Amino acid sequence: MAGLEVVVRPVILPDIRPRARQSLPPQDDPEKGFSKIDGQPAKQVTMTYSMSVSSSHARPKEVERRVDEVRVYQKEDDGTVNRDNFIDLQVANKITMEEPGPAGQPDPEHPGSLPTGTASEMKEYFYERVNQQEENIEVRRVDVILRNGEEFSG
Q1: Please, are residues 65 and 126 in contact by the beta-carbon 8 Å criterion?
Q2: On the CB side of 119, how many CA atoms lie within 13 Å of its CA?
Q3: Would you write out the chain's pLDDT as a tens digit for each of its 154 residues?
Q4: CA within 20 to 30 Å of 49's CA: 22, 24, 39, 142, which one?
Q5: Would residue 70 count as lying in a domain?
Q6: Does residue 54 form part of some domain?
């Protein structure tokens, strides 16, 4: 049975064993093989491109309004008027607005100058007056003129 011992026993060959560590000669420059990144300290970078956008829209401004002052009484479902319950109203029948127009003209004494200021135009808007024929409406004052900044904020 000597043949069985040969089959089971592994054979270790010298070429599969790890090699012994080889010592390397010391490098003459310890910085050799490394890259070094140098530069100036941080500084502010100024961009030469800039962009600005603006827009404006001129709206009309109320200058004056003409109103009728009325008192409206409560009207019941059966048609009777309750004179104890009422509200006072100002009903506009004319409103004067100042509307901005195109830019002014250049100065004729200085040719090539830019237009200065804006021209404005006054426009009047008329509205229907209060119906005085209703039994629950009482007109107290007619054609009261209100200027902007006095009695109303327009």
Answers
A1: no
A2: 8
A3: 555 555 556 666 666 667 777 777 766 776 777 777 777 777 787 878 888 888 776 788 899 999 999 999 999 999 899 999 999 999 999 999 988 766 555 556 666 555 555 667 889 999 999 887 888 999 999 999 999 877 554 3
A4: 39
A5: yes
A6: no
